[in-house]
Each structure stands twice: as structure tokens, then as C-alpha cells.
Amino acid sequence: MTLFVGFLIVSTLLCALVTGFIFTYAVVVMPGFAKLDDRDFIRAFQVTDGVIQNNQPLFMLAWVGSIVSVVPP
Fold it and tell me: Do 63 and 15 touch, CB atoms closer than 8 A?
């Protein structure tokens, strides 16, 4: 297996992981948020977004890594 194929496999897996996360968020979380009134929706979305951005290095690694791994050395 060449280095390019290795990067391609890693990129494919990371993109699939991020896609699964976004799909799950859209199918499970957003319909739940839709049942809230506007003020509660904004607050819940801000809290969820803050947790994802501040406390999830694994998510950020998958998100950024899927882009970086596409560029072969």
C-alpha cells in the first residue's frame, strides 16, 4: 500500500465519521430542538455548540483531520 492510498483510506474513514455525526445530529437532536420555544432553542443550541467546540478534541481531530489527510505529502 502506498502512502497516497493510506492517506485516502484515513480521509475516507474520517469523512464518514464526521458525516455520521452530522446526520445523527440532524435526525435526532434538531427535531428535539424544534419542539422548544425560540428562546430555549437558541440557548440549547449555544450550549451544544459550546460543548462541541470546547470539550471535544476527538471531534475536532476528525473534522480537521479529514481535510488535512486529503492533501498527500
Answer: no
